[in-house]
Amino acid sequence: MPVPLLDLNAQNLALETELKAAFERVLRHGQFILGKEVTQFEEAIAKCTGAKHAIGVSSGTDAILLALMAAGIGPGDEVLCPSYTFFATAGCVARVGAKPVFVDADPVTFNIDVADAARRVTPRTKAIIPVHLFGQAAAMDDVLALASQHNLRVIEDAAQSMGAAYRGRQLGTIGDMGTYSFFPSKNLGAFGDAGLLVTNDDALAERSRLLRTHGSKPKYYHKLVGGNFRLDALQAALLAVKLVHYASYTERRRANAAYYTAQLRGLPGVALVNESTAGAKILLPVAQPGNDHIWNQYTLRVIGAGRRDALRALCDARKVGTEIYYPLPMHAQECFAYCGCQPGDLPVAMQLAGEALSVPIYPELNRAQQDEVIDVIRQFLA
Ligand SMILES: Cc1ncc(COP(=O)(O)O)c(C=O)c1O
Questions:
Q1: Which ligand 1 atom sits closest to the C-alpha of 157?
Q2: Is the model's pLDDT at 77 over the cut of 80?
Q3: What CA–CA distances, in Å, run from 242 to 113, 187, 259, 369?
């Protein structure tokens, strides 16, 4: 039985009537840039996350760029960011003219290793960007302690984790600013690119709103050099339809993760990633205590040279969709060679890049499909 990595139609077509009505509403009123739909969506996200300000933007990438610009990060500054993440995190640091300083990963959560970050602080360090990877929080108490010790801005890249919490606090609202992505594969997926920035800081919110529209206020009078980072009214209207169902999407993702873990855990050679790993062939992801994980990904660590690729090939042969998030850490990317980091400098990030394999976890995945994924893994271990 084929099992796709993601099935957007299963989620979106279930809401076809409401989505078409939202589309028609925007079509008819004709205000496509900002306006009522964007404001209402921003208010809804502010309410869900508890953030004081929510600012709809064109993508999760632009949310990070905007946050860095609003924080005044630029040439001569260094920004601590994980190497094991999607490109946008470090890419935005480079785009504002600052230097990304790559930090190793925690082998259990895949998130930034804050002790390693501490070793890389210099007098030029101005900010840290913890990424809450795969739907689970980075160690935010440690991040905040490091930031306060060195007077660093904290920008949370919560592209994959809107709605997840750390010790009761919503991700994105813990640091100075937080960023979300609504890329279609995210837990709240748009119909194209979309993102959002949250902050509790009035001055940063004001600067971000200005920078979102070329720094102009009033129109054609530019206080700052910004960009066009606006969220489309159409995306906001469509996202608002899906936001109503967000809690149920999360619940189903959690149930799917719990089912995988319950079924796989008993297989010989399988252990939880935070257990003693001697002899284990596959390590299952875990939610750390205090983390309300929202399971954007269910990512296995497949131990042993070449073994991850062998499991992936078997999944391909049995038509089970998988993805490698991420095959090459940022510090080893060609475009960041100028940062002066050798691949071996961040050994955990390199190890995870060779072991990680994400399997389908989307909310509409049914038990028969999950059983198929489990059966492939069973065959692999046999
Ligand atoms: C960790 C992380 N940061 C940033 C982004 C960028 O978001 P977007 O694709 O909406 O620009 C993504 C999503 O792809 C992501 O996974």
A1: 3
A2: yes
A3: 34, 10, 25, 24
- Grouping H, G, I as helix, E, B as strand and the rest as coil, residue 13 is helix
Ligand 1, residues at Cβ distance < 6 Å: 59-61, 85-86, 88-89, 131, 157, 159-160, 181, 183, 193, 195
The CA 270 to ligand 1 mean position distance, Å, reads 30
Could you report the per-residue pLDDT of 11-55, keeping only the tens digit for each?
999 999 999 999 999 999 999 999 999 999 999 999 999 999 999
Q: Is the pLDDT of residue 167 over 90?
A: yes
List Cβ neighbours of 201 (8 Å cut-off, separation of 6 or more): 52, 53, 176, 177
Q: Closest residue (by CA) to atom 12 of ligand 1?
A: 159
Cα–ligand 1 centroid distance for 73 (angstroms):
20
pLDDT digits (tens, 9 = 90+) for 252-310: 999 999 999 999 999 999 999 999 778 899 999 999 999 999 999 999 999 999 999 99
Pairing of strands 165-166, 291-292: antiparallel
* Separation of alpha carbons 331 and 351, rounded Å: 13
Find the helix or strand (DSSP H, E) in which 180 lies: strand 177-181
3-state SS, 80-100, equals EEECCCCHHHHHHHHHCCCEE
Ligand 1 geometric centre to CA of 186 (Å): 9
The structural domains of the chain, ordered by start, are: 8-103+113-243 (3.40.640.10), 246-381 (3.90.1150.10)
Please tell me the predicted confidence (pLDDT) of residue 292. Answer: 96
